[in-house]
Every structure is written in C-alpha cells, then in structure tokens.
Amino acid sequence: MHTQLAMIEDPIQSLFGVLERSVSSLQSIIKALRSERECVVFFDVQGLMGALESKNQALAEHQELQSQLQHHVKSCWQESGPRRMDTPESVSEALRLLGESVSGQSGRRLVEYSSELVALIDVVRELHDLNKELVQRSVSWITSYVAELVDTSSAGTYDVTGRIGRQRNSAQLVKRLI
Q1: Keyword set for this entry (predicted)?
Q2: Tens of pLDDT along 146-162?
Q3: Is 19's pLDDT higher than 80?
Q4: Cβ atoms of residues 54 and 32 within 8 Å
Q5: pLDDT at 23
Q6: CA distances from 86 to 80, 81, 93, 94, 97 (A)
Q7: Predicted TM-score (pTM) above 0.85
Q8: What does the angle CA 57 – CA 61 – CA 64 come to, to the nearest 5 degrees?
Q9: Within 10 Å of residue 110's Cβ, how many Cβ atoms?
Q10: Strand partners, 158
Q11: Residue among 55, 65, 80 nearest 117 (CA)
Q12: Of residues 133 and 140, which shows the higher confidence score?
C-alpha cells in the first residue's frame, strides 16, 4: 500500500507543478486582457500593441501548458483515477474526479485547482468578450468620425454623451476639433 501511494504521489506532484504554471499563465492572460481593455478605452494604440504582444505570448505559453497538463492528467488518471471510467475530456472534470479518488491533502488540492481553473477561464472569456465588444464600438465610432470628416453634410457624429447626432456645418466641426 505504501509503495503504491509513493508511486501515485510522484506523478501528482509533477501535475501540481504544471497546474501552478497554468494558473500563472491564465493570470498573465487576464492581466494582458485588462491592459488591452484600458488601451482600447483610451485609444492608446502604442499601449494596445504592447498589450496584444503580451497577450499573444501568454496565450502561446498557456497552449503549451495545456498539452503538458493533459499529458500529466492522463498519466495520473492511469495511476490513480477511477478504474470504471475513461479519462474525461475536460481537464477540470478529470482533476475534480481525480481529486475525489486521491486521499488526503493532494486530493483536496486537485479539487481546488479544478475550481480555480474554471473560475480563471470564466474571467478570461468574460474579458475577451468585453474587449471584443469595445473594439467593435471603437471601430464603429472611428468609421463614423472619419465619414464625418470626409462628408460633414451627411455623416453622423458622436456627442460628448456618446449619442450619434448630425453635423451640418463644417465650421462647427472645426470648432470641435480645436
């Protein structure tokens, strides 16, 4: 029994290392997404380029960690997972079930990591969707503003409150730009 527990602990300890790095990479993605949002809101193009670079690096790291994580989860599942089941497709579900089948502190930590990964992924999705919406609004605003500059007699503009209005007089447009 003691030798079997020692054999199980080594792959699980390796899994914990990959899980810690996965959580860290998701936190880096969240940080980059928040930075991206700020840059879009304030039209900071140079900052946006840096934020996108950071996000792309964090995403690449996370993808690499995901394949390592899947490998480690399958390895641990073969060692100590429920014998009646195949490895679940969802890593978080596999971690939860694996945590329930491993006793002690390691089992509790696996369940905690499962919950933490799900929560972080939800934050990433929420921020990604928000950023996508902000970019679409910004592009729409810029397109409308450029159209106004090109043809001030028929293009819509945004006032201070963000509502679209009509600008008929180019002299008023020049005053707004000054």
Answers
A1: Bacterial flagellum biogenesis, Cell projection, Cilium, Flagellum
A2: 888 887 555 456 665 66
A3: yes
A4: yes
A5: 97
A6: 12, 9, 12, 10, 11
A7: no
A8: 145
A9: 24
A10: 164
A11: 65
A12: 133
C-alpha distances in Å from residue 162, one per residue of 156, 158, 168? 11, 5, 18
Query: Which residue's entry shows tokens 């995901």?
Result: 66
Average pLDDT over residues 100-116: 91
Q: DSSP assignment, residue 154?
A: T
Q: Which two tokens stand for residue 28?
A: 């880096």
**For residue 165, which amino acid is it?**
G
Q: Which residue do the tokens 């879009």 mark?
A: 40
Beta-bridge partner residues of 156 = 166
Q: How far are the Cα atoms of 153, 156, 159 from residue 170, in angstroms, in the given order?
A: 8, 13, 15
Burial 159-171 (b: 16+ CB within 10 A, else e): eeeeeeeebeeee
pLDDT of residue 81 exceeding 90, the answer is no
Which pair of tokens denotes residue 143? 């397109």
**DSSP string spanning 56-83?**
HHHHHHHHHHHHHHHHHHHHHHHHHS-T
d(CA 120, CA 124): 6
Dist. CA 26–CA 22, nearest whole Å = 6
Residue type, 61: E
49 burial level (CB within 10 Å; 0-12, 13-18, 19+): exposed
